[in-house]
């Protein structure tokens, strides 16, 4: 395998290093790891209480809202998806009738439409159009909620006047009255489709005065020295730690992100060393968002990472590699979590992976570099021959019996069989004798089966451990802690569902 070649080179240079390195590596692989999810990259679904103290916490960045004129009983719509006027002539709401919020403060917002423009007040007869490529003063609106019915709102424009639906094609910002009656053309019903809860949402939701303390308290308490003791004493050999691109700009990352996650990552390396564990640093959130999920650090859910982001993203890898290359606990750096196809093109991804690999190799010949397979519409073998150009490289695949209709009607045994057959074969496809190592970087014992028994969960987890144990680099459970018991490896171990 590729890394033997490296060891030989080292043998000439330094015999003792080689012995240490080779012993360490042969005894470490494959890793039994756990993801420290929701620690340095927030995921509200795992710990909702983090968001409890945010005012208007259902109106965070990226919240998708639909707005119905109560008088007309019609939805506001960015005609053509954006680029022209906003109308109110739709009786049902879909893409063009859905607006994504950018939160300025707890009551002030921009509205981003389907084609990514911002709705705004554009002079002529105070009409509302969705044509601005960036939000300015005229794209900034205040949402005023009715106290005893917070889904009934007024929308105040930058001219100080309220939006009104004069007719189903004439939406203007010139209403100067008040009142909440159904016949009032300035009254809208706000329908919240979904509210993402990632790092952007929590930091901007609390704002610059409160966010630093909230995040610091979370980082200090969510994962501690004691957790590393627990993990190592229960048979785990490594942690995969999701981080966001802003960590490279600590202690003063661009707003709304706040500094301090780098110190927490430093602590993880200290604790890992203390308990003989290894660290996989996983760049989970990149500038522009590689998948649109809240855990990619996105503001509004648009997936926009591309060619223009490669340089900055490589700089984050360079920063991490430089800082931890000589740390004995560093096992690997994962260049990007879950890029999504086709939005992230294979060409861009390969260009980035090549540069990211080189950045890591500037500082260390032996740390593994992990390449995440694309999710979505992508061939799981598409990186294999490309990865053959590199040394100490790993392909990461994620396996969840969730998130697809395929699993919703499976009984317990069918889920287990799926692991033994389809997952085993999918893993085999990316486990080659001469190429990159394989890594099941995310999996969980939760599955789409309500009311499964403890024995069912034990069997399902055991089937996965048996199959994923064949991955040559190892596996990592998602996650260490989570409000949902089966997603928490800590809980699963403490309650005898999983034994390693
Ligand atoms: C809504 O109004 C716009 C602008 O007049 C028009 O082009 C569109 O066809 C209308 N749509 C419906 C469903 O009435």
Automatic annotation (TrEMBL):
Domain of life: Eukaryota
InterPro entries reported for this sequence: Actin-crosslinking, DUF7910, Fascin, GH, Glyco_hydro_5
PANTHER family in UniProt: FASCIN, GLUCAN 1,3-BETA-GLUCOSIDASE ARB_04467-RELATED
GN (gene name): LOC115995351
Alphabetized CDD domains for the sequence: beta-trefoil_FSCN-like
Domain Glycoside hydrolase family: 215-479
UniProt record, GO biological process: actin filament bundle assembly; cell migration; establishment or maintenance of cell polarity; polysaccharide catabolic process
UniProt protein name: Mannan endo-1,4-beta-mannosidase
Residues making up the signal peptide according to the UniProt record: 1-24
Keyword Cell division: no
Keyword Hydrolase on entry: yes
Record key words, sorted: Glycosidase, Hydrolase, Signal
Any one GO molecular-function label of the UniProt entry: actin filament binding
Similarity comment text for this entry: Belongs to the glycosyl hydrolase 5 (cellulase A) family.
Ranges for domain DUF7910: 56-193
GO CC annotation, single: actin cytoskeleton
Pfam families referenced in this protein's UniProt entry, alphabetically: Cellulase, DUF7910
